[in-house]
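seq:
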Amino acid sequence: MREPVIRETAERQDPEEIADLHQNKFSLRWIILIPFVIVLGVLAAISRQGESTNNTEKIEPVKAGKRGAATGGAATGGEASVKKMLRNNIRLYVKAESNDYDHKTLGGISNLEISVNNSTDYTLDKVRVKVMYIKANGGIYETKYEDFQTIKPNTKITHNIPDTKRGTSVKYEISSVKSKALGL
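struct:
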């Protein structure tokens, strides 16, 4: 019986030639592998670029609106009654709002900024905002909390919120307000 042609040629070749063939295959693997790894690294860097967790803070003075800033004084019956009124109605004077963030059709929220507006004449020590990422079907994908520290009277503080890969819209609400000045 006759052996396959491949074996015949391999048996006739010099061992050094066979070693050179193996070396060429090894080199070809590296030539293909190195650009592949570089391309994967570049893609990973691009995808992580939008996932920065740098929470920057902007502080802006707030102009008195219709309601004006809540202040104390003799005309309102004293500072104690104003503080009591503010404690009972704090959600009227401390508001959260968002910017026009970007969202992808298949899901993903980016460039989200949440602002907290303190329209009182008292410093707020900590305001916690509940941020809910909503899926296309209306369900909640994820809930996160963002803490705003030391909000001066009549100012607005803005935080950049990290991007998410899911969700088509955002709902937010103030979950708690703490202020030593107001007794909260």
